[in-house]
Amino acid sequence: NINGNVNGNVNGNVNGNINDNINDNINGNININGNINININGNVISMTMQYQWQCNINGNINGNINDN
Q: How many domains does the chain have?
């Protein structure tokens, strides 16, 4: 959970900030659009990463059961 939250937050914020800056430049510093992008991108990345981690956890559990 600790690593998941850290990576999700860092990646979400980095991508959100990139989109925030792009949209600010295009729209003339409209802060609302920037904030929406940060939140949406952050959540999407977090959900995607959590799904991948869950697949890895399930794979490891199944692998261990089969090994035993």
A: 1
| Residue 27 to residues 7, 19, 31, Cα–Cα distance (Å) | 29, 12, 9
CA 7/CA 53 separation, integer angstroms: 11
Overall pTM > 0.85: no
- Total residues belonging to the chain: 68
Residue 13 C-alpha from the chain's centroid: 8
Q: What is the CA radius of gyration of the chain?
A: 17
Is 7 within 8 Å of 56 (Cβ atoms)? Answer: no
Domain of 8, in residue numbers: 2-67
- What are the tens digits of pLDDT across the range 11-51? 666 666 666 556 555 555 444 444 444 444 545 555 556 66
